[in-house]
Structure formats: C-alpha cells, structure tokens
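Reproducibility note. Readers wishing to regenerate the assembly model reported in the main text can use the exact inputs given here. Chain order matters: entities are listed in the order in which they were concatenated for prediction.
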Amino acid sequence: MSKLPRWVDVGVIPLANVVIAFAVAALVVLAVGASPAEAFKDMLTGALGSSEGIGYTLYYATDYMFTGLAVAVAFHAGLFNIGGEGQAYLGGLGAGLAALALDHGVSPVVAIPLAIAAAAAVGALWAAIPGYLQAYRGSHIVITTIMFNFIASALMVYLMVNVLIAPGSMSPESRDFTAAQLPLVSDMLNHLGFAVDPSPLNLSLVLALLCCIGVWILIWHTPFGYEVRALGFNSNAAVYAGVNPKRLTLIVMCISGALAGLVGVNEILGVHHRLLLDFAAGYGFGGIAVALMGRNHPLGIVLASLLFGVLQQGGTELSFDIPAITRDMVVAIQGLVILFSGALANLPRPLLEAPFLWLARRRAAQEGTG
Amino acid sequence: MSDVLALLLPTLAATLRVATPLILCAMGGLFSERSGVIDVGLEGKMLAAAFAAAAVAAWTGSPWEALAGAIAVSCAMAALHGFAVITHRGNQVVSGVAINILASGLTVVFGNAWFQAGGQTPALPDSARFMPLPGGFSLLVYVALASVALTWWVVTRTRFGLRLRAVGEAPAAIDAAGISVAWLRYRAILICGALTGIAGTYLAISQNANFSKEMSAGQGYIALAALIFGKWKPIPAFGACLVFGLLDAVAIRLQGVALPGIGEVPVQFIQALPYVLTVILLAGLIGKAVAPKAIGVPYEKEH
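Running the prediction on these inputs yields the following structure tokens for the assembly.
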C-alpha cells in the first residue's frame, strides 16, 4: 500500500503538513505587513517567556487536549464528530449545575468528582443523540452534530437569560459557587515555596493527561479498542468479525462527547466558578485541528495541544506588540492546519516518495547486476 | 382584515429579505451536493464573500465591482475545496470545516490590517450598495428568486443537469461514458462558489452597510439544513428556505409577545427550530431525506 518506511509515514509527512500550514500562515503575516520572524519570536516569548505565559499556555492546551481526544476517539471508529463545540458547552452546563446544586454543606472532595462526572455525563448525552440517530436511524452524524451545536447554543442562551441568571445581575451569568472549585496550579506551587505568577491553569491539566493515557489504553490495549479500530478501518469486515456496529457507534459517541464535555471542568470548575455564555467557543473546532495534526494518537494530541496553547497565548500577547495581528490569526492557522493536515494531507507525499522510490529502484538494479 | 394584512405583508417581505442569502446558498449547495461533493463550507464561503464585497465597495464605491470581487473570492475558496477533495481526494467534510474556520479567521485578520476597526469595514454610502428598488427589495433578492428557477431548469432540463445528477449517483457510469468526473464536479462547485458569492454580497452591502465579524452567523448552516430539508431538490429547498426565513422574521416580532393558548414562546426556541426540524427529518420521523448516492466518496478511476 504505502511505499514509504513507517517513520516517514508517521513522522515526516505529518511534520511536512504542519510546515506547509505554517509557511502559508507566514505568508498571511507578510501580507498584513508584519515580519513573520518577529511575530514568531514575540509569540514564543509571550507564550513561554514567563511563568504566567506558561500557565496560560498550559490552560489553553488543556481544553485542546479534551476536544482533540474527543474528535480522535470518534475518528478511530470512522465517525466525524463536529459537535465538540456543543458537547463542551453543555458539559460546562452539567458541571456548573452540579456545582451550584452541591454548593451548600458539601465537601469539595465529594462535590468536585460529582461535578466532573456531571460534565462528562451531559457531554456524553449531547453526543449520544446524534450517535443514536446515526446508528439506528441512519442520519448523517456530520449534519446532526452541526445542528446540535446550534441547538446547544440556543439552549444555553435561553437557560442563562431566563433561568440561571443571578438575581439582580446585568449580564447573563449565574451566581458564583465555592465548593466545587478546582485548585489553581499557581496557588499550589506558591504553597510549596515556588514563586509563580497567577494564571488560570488548574488541576484539569492532570485530568486531561489522565484522559490521554486512558484513551491510549482504551484504543490500543483493550478488546473494545480493537473493535473500534476494526469498525473504523473496514466496517464490513468488522461486522463479519462479530462487531455490533450500532452499539459500538453509540458507545464511541458517548465517550467522545464525555471527553469534550470535560472542557467544562477546566472552564467552569477551574476558572470561572459560575455559569456564563460562550466559555467553550472555538475549542470544539480547534479539537478537529488538534486531532488531525496529532494523527489521532494521544501523544500527538498532547504535542498539538501544546502548540495550539502556545499559539493562543502567544497570539494574545502578540496583538499588543503588532496590532495588525490579533487572536484571529490563531483561528486562521487552525483552519490552515485542518486544510493541510486533514483534507490535503497527501499533498507532500509524491515529493517525499520520490527519493525512496529512487533508492528502491537503484537497489533493485544493483541486485540485478550483482 | 386590513389589520391582518398590515401585519402579514411586512412579515412576508421580511421573510423574503431574510431568506435571500439562505436561498442563494441552498441553490449553490444543491449544485455541489448533487454532483457528489459535500459542502459544509457554505458558511465560510459566504462570510469570505461578504468581507470581499464590503472591502471592494469601500475601496471603489461600486456595488458591481464589489459583487465581482465577492464572487471571485468565493469561487477561489470553492476551487480550493475542489483541489483538496476532487484532485487530491481529501475528506470533503474536513475540507469544508477548514474553509469555514479559515474564513472566520482570515476575514478578521485582513479586516484589521486594512481598516483598523476590530475586523469591521467602514460604513458604506448608499451609492456603494445594492439599495431597495421601487418594489421594496434589492436587485439581489430578485437574483435569488431567479436562481431558484434557473437551478430547477439547469438541473432537471439540461444535458449538464442530467450529467450532474448522474455524477452524484454513479460517477463510474459518467466516466464510462467518456465524460470527465473531475471537470463536471469542478464546474458544479464553481457554480456553488458564484451563488454563495452573491449571498455574501447581499449580506454585506445590501442587507447591511458594512462587514462585521462573523456576520454570516450560521446562515450557511441553515441553508445546508434547508437543502437537506428540501431533499436536495430546488423547489422544496426553496420552500424550506422560506419557512426558515419566516421563523427568523417571526422570532424578532414575537419577542416578549404572549401567544393565545401557548403563552410566551422563547425566541431561542424559534431560532433553534430549523436545526431541530432538520434533525427530526434526518431521523426519518417526517418523511425521509435520501442524499445523492455517491455523496462524500472521492472518485477513483479504475485502471
């Protein structure tokens, strides 16, 4: 099938795709009259040059890990979950409702796990409906998950404006809760005697890394994961091997939605400590870029999440120095990564294949003469 | 009676105005999807076109040049989609998502760089816009209506339309007949690009007087929903656009109004209704929407 050694397939080609995406991004930076080299330097300093910058970078990366894993798990079963946006949003709703309900006389040791479970459960539920419709009613999951993003958005606006708004509040935000707040990493480090500046980075990062390990074990080291990959690789063969594709589709979508829902843990339990609008905006779609760039592997997803964390934090800093470049540049780069690592992933293949074909031909010729 | 008319006519007129970008996008999507190419990138193409129209109108002051610029940008994005999914056989949904996100980011990046107003373009004078004609609608509204008739005629009554439908159902048959599958599909998505370009122009320089960040606000997705709701057929898709447009026009008017027997209907419920209805339709609960058979499958020539 592939004429390339494995290390080229899993290492060089993904790297080439990302390099092309960033080369085009550099052209855009040039086109708006800024210097790509300077922008790159500023971005790195902004993202990694201070303990505050690093904290923000890792906080953004946490969200990308959750949504990246969500997209990747579905991809392994051959499903394209574009609904991460809505699942993350409603996961936050679940976390926030649980935290608000458990706010009186409940210990954080009980409240936090329950609120995390609520985030995962509501995220899973929001993905389960499109999953069910795909599996049992034949509705295309891409379309239904897109529709569910909009339904989630309308539902949240309705709930925040009409039901959950704190009495007397001008903006659609709920009251603050205290019990289920996740500890901030900066507070913990300061307690231990390391002086770091405050940032929103919280224990959700640990949860995200645990999810990465969990997904790695689940997909590559369990019979269930084997079935998932079989379904994604060749659904007909999987059915003949005894896989129940309907049940599996539903379960995979639930896992995917639960992972996306955990964005709500990072945002609501970790940072905002109240319910509000649009806290998850962009992470669902960002997760598609992360999963494609990370080749649906947890290790790749961690690396891609870190890169997007750097971009997002660095991009925010960058807009102070170079006004022509705003955070929207990061959105454009996400689009370019989805294009070149996803839809056009095979673009650099012929070029990279050429030297190996040449080598193979030469070896064959030598064997022929020798 | 005259009271009802006084309420009804403005609502119907508002419906048509709101439905215009939906109609244009849905007809564009119809060409693409009937040829077998999924287009979730209607939203992005329309947004990019809206920006192009507003930018060109701000520079030249000519709505016609703005229209040409918008169509050019939208077609360029359609060609990029084609390059990825027809030439390189990439995943059509991934490519469409990329185009949406790319448009969402680049319009603001360039808008900021060129006009320094947080991604907005300057407010346009009436002379740089498509203003309402004596009938109360701008020219582009009539173009949208004409596009429905034209789409119906092209798809059902011409040789190109026959081949278009065939390539979406059985591309191998088209190939065996000696017709280029790739070229046919490229033409289909370029027509889609032109129509979404007009839709974007309407948003930026007819319905509004400038471009603002994310101004398409999900209308490309509603158009996609309308296309599916109309079962990929021109007239039913047009009907779905009108229904979704009516919901939107009514939602604004129903804000805070208590309906007899129902009470106050939350605006968000009416706004979400097109999406909910589409999901219900896709679930097979009201009729059945059957997509073109070869949709989403890259065509690989047999050797």
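We highlight two features of this model. Chain B touches chain A through 49 residues (CB under 8 Å). Chain B has a mean pLDDT of 92.
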